[in-house]
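#structure-requests
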Amino acid sequence: MSYTKVLTKDQRNEIVISGASIITGIVTKAAVEKGWKLLFKEESPSKGEAESIDLKKILLWTAVSGTIISSAKLMATHFLSEKL
């Protein structure tokens, strides 16, 4: 006899929400990096050598990318929490 553990609805929802948050983070990071490249005509600071990047650009990159990516993940999580 095989035993298969069935997930509860809450457990399934948590898996879906976590997966969506991860995917949202990956997609948003790629979009932010492309936006940086279009705006500044160079790779984002996350891809460069630390010594060759201006400190102001590093701080700008950290603030902008962190805010956008975190906000997108939060919105996806909130939206799915209400819908599931």
